[in-house]
Amino acid sequence: MRIDELLENDKALDIVSKSLGYSKEQFIEELHKAQTSGLEYIKFEVDENNNDQ
């Protein structure tokens, strides 16, 4: 997923930031830092052994 796409999707931001233990604002800040460093895409993987989600 392109970082720009993720930043435009509030629902996805809520889910991912919560799953990673960040506040939404912290996660957005980290995404902006990553973009500044040249990151364009982010890949999500599912842990099939974790049934909490």
Question: Can you describe this structure?
Answer:
The structure is a single chain. With 53 residues, the protein is mostly helical. Helix content is 55%, strand content 0%. It contains three helices and no strands. α2 packs across α3 (24-36). The protein is globular and about 35 Å long. The two termini are 20 Å apart. The model has no long low-confidence stretch (mean pLDDT 89).
Can you give me a brief rundown of this structure?
This protein is mainly alpha-helical. The protein contains three helices and no strands.
Using brief descriptors, characterize the structure shown:
53 residues, mainly alpha
Topology:
Layout (H helix, E strand, L loop, with lengths): L2 H5 L2 H11 L3 H13 L17
Instruction: Give me the oligomer status.
Output: single chain
| CA gyration radius, whole angstroms | 12 Å
Q: Tell me the β content.
A: under 5%
Low-confidence stretches: none
Q: What count of helical segments does DSSP give?
A: 3
Helix content: 40-55%
Count the E strands: 0
- SSE sequence, one letter per element: HHH
Distance between the termini: 20 Å
- Mean pLDDT comes to 89
Shape by Cα distribution: globular
Q: Helix- and strand-based class? A: mainly alpha
The profile of the biggest β sheet is: none
